[in-house]
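Researcher: Let's walk through a ligand-bound prediction step by step. First, I give you the protein sequence. Second, the SMILES string for zinc ion. Third, you return the three-dimensional complex as structure tokens. Ready?
Model: Ready.
Researcher: Here are steps one and two:
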Amino acid sequence: MKKFFFLIVLISISLIFGCTPKTDNTSEETTEQAVENPIIKKIAELKAAGYEIVDYHGHLKGGLTMEELLEHSKETGIDYGVAFNAGIGFPITNDSSLEATMKLYKHYPVYMAMQAEGREWVDMFSKEKIDMFDYVFTDAMTWTDSKGRRMRLWMPEEVFVDDKEDFMDQLVSKIVGVMSEEPIDIYVNSTFLPDTLQPEYDALWTPDRMDKVINAAVANNIAIEINSRYKIPSATFIKRAKAAGVKFSMGTNNVGNELGTLDYSIAMIGECGLEPGDFFKPVKK
Ligand SMILES: [Zn+2]
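Model: Step three, the predicted complex:
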């Protein structure tokens, strides 16, 4: 009974002295939250171990401002590459709009990335203006199949799969074509499959198909994105690519104002034994 009373006294003292009313110092609260968040703790540990934690595929979308992105960067410890979409049907369609975007944001402490869209971009911009960006990337989600049907793989109504194996062979040859013909630094949204084929990802991405993509990346010195939004490529693919000498980048590809914390990309570091030297690193211009 005495022990119980003593405990009550102790709890009361800690309540009186320990839980002072919350101040309006929000940055202090943010720091406390950050320390408690396991992924933010993990990011700090990885950085201490020599990894650069950069989300090379951030977008100013859903009203997100550069200031808000930098605040998120401060809270999480993630550095950013901010990508601007350029190509037919996008805000940037020529040299002057490309250069204007660069001028608007180049003084911010982020990497400036050009996300090249569609296959026509190669002829829409001059090398001089493209070279203003720290790096360029594209994906293979937009292409025209052997029957002339233009597909955007993330739009279910624009996807045509008559035969799964034939679809996969065409997809792989498109990816290899993009890597061989387009001057990019990173291939993003890598190994993405449309919704209908997603459940069969492991069976459809055969060793032979993986190797074609991996070999093209090595031959053209192109990094492959580990994408946290779609959770691709699989660990099997990443391990195979690492063994072949491929470099990787981490990316979110946010469609709204939520940047996230690169959870899948960071999990793959541990699962696939990736080392700091396995990652892509651009030169900041
Ligand atoms: Zn993107």
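Researcher: And what stands out?
Model: The pocket of zinc ion is lined by residues 57, 59, 83, 115, 253 (CB under 6 Å). The chain has one domain: 55-278.
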